[in-house]
Write a structure and sequence with these properties.
337 residues, alpha/beta, Rossmann fold, 12 strands, 36% helix, NmrA-like, NmrA-type_oxidoreductase, NAD(P)H-binding protein, NAD(P)-bd_dom_sf
Length: 337
């Protein structure tokens, strides 16, 4: 007489690993056959904002660490993606302003990097948290978010409270998460020193120490964390916020004026101008007022030490010293000195 077999299966997610359990009942012999759990390492990393400067840099780093078919990008306009589909990277449309699109964009994801948007206020916080929830809903084992080293709710720098509020909402979702506390992007210094070598004067509002950090170094650090445990890649796991991901030294614009002088051989004098005066200069030169006020908030936050913290974590992640502000300035000024 033929055996009557009944199979019961279960699948689930534990941390960053998927598992499968199958139990088979054999009625003819009153035996139970247990097939041991089969674990599957994380295989799909989704990067949002992959046509932006930071997201695309993370993608480049990941392609040196994991197979292309384990990488997917979520972008508002897939037509703008060049060179990735040909190498086996999955490209899907995903728009933070269209939550339904994220379900398809994040399909099969084990880890999702939610790259922060370039807007401010509740709209930005809502979009970040909506994307994180969409990642959790498709079964992602961990959500990564690109925050800032400064997440103080009372900071004069408008992006800081947005990052803090986003972290709080992601924590409420219940999925494992990591917030990348990135240092201030060093390339922004180029906008602030514009014209200084021609005039011999660096005229800016009063400031404080800032740990200006290379965006490429931060992307490399993000890739290490995203790929940890995949394809033989080592790396730590941070639950919640990372340590500050910065260069080892925070500098003021007095220091930057000195470095420019040393690099170019031309004396640059640092002068302090009032906040309102600087704001008027910026808008009169064509800068949009919201952008100028955001940058003024950076100076005001720097005065109270919001960007002064440094930590060795980034250098430890990428296995080398992060690019110094001197090297950044030399590159911005077009010299190798």
């Amino acid at each position: 007489m033929a055996s009557d077999l009944l199979a019961i299966g279960a699948r689930g997610l534990h941390g960053d690993q998927r598992y499968q359990l199958i139990v088979i009942f054999d009625d003819s012999s009153d035996t139970v056959i247990l097939i041991p759990p089969i674990t599957k390492e994380v295989q799909m990393i989704v990067i949002t904002g992959a046509t932006g400067a930071f997201g695309s840099a993370v993608v480049r780093e990941l392609l040196h660490k994991i197979p292309a078919n384990e990488l997917s990008v979520s972008v508002r306009d897939p037509a703008k993606v060049r060179g990735l589909p040909e190498h086996g990277v999955r490209v899907r449309r995903g728009d933070f302003g269209d939550p339904a699109s994220l379900t398809a964009a994040f399909e099969g994801a084990d880890r999702v990097l939610v790259t922060s948007v370039d807007s401010l206020g509740e709209r930005a916080v809502a979009q970040h948290s909506s994307a994180a929830r969409a990642a959790a809903d498709v079964g992602a084992g961990r959500v990564f978010y690109t925050a800032h080293q400064n997440t103080a709710i009372d900071s004069p720098f408008a992006a800081a409270p947005d990052h803090g509020a986003t972290e709080e909402r992601i924590a409420e979702i219940g999925v494992p998460w990591t917030s990348l506390r990135n240092g201030f992007y060093a390339h922004i210094v180029g906008q602030l020193i514009h014209g200084a070598t021609e005039t011999g004067e660096l005229a800016l509002p009063e400031d404080g120490p800032v740990s200006w950090t290379s965006r490429d170094d931060l992307a490399a650090g993000a890739a290490v964390l995203l790929a940890a445990g995949i394809a033989g890649n080592d790396g730590p796991v941070f639950d919640g916020p990372t340590p500050p991901l910065t260069v080892p030294e925070a500098v003021t614009f007095d220091d930057i004026a000195y470095l420019i002088s040393d690099i170019t051989g031309k004396l640059i004098r640092r002068t302090i101008i009032g906040d309102d005066d600087w704001l008027h200069r910026m808008t009169d030169s064509g800068a949009p007022e919201p952008a100028a006020r955001l940058m003024l908030g950076m100076f005001q936050a720097a005065r109270r030490g919001d960007f002064a913290t440094t930590d060795p974590a980034l250098g430890e992640l990428i296995g080398r010293q992060p690019q110094t502000i001197r090297a950044t300035l030399a590159s911005l000024l077009g010299t190798s000195r």
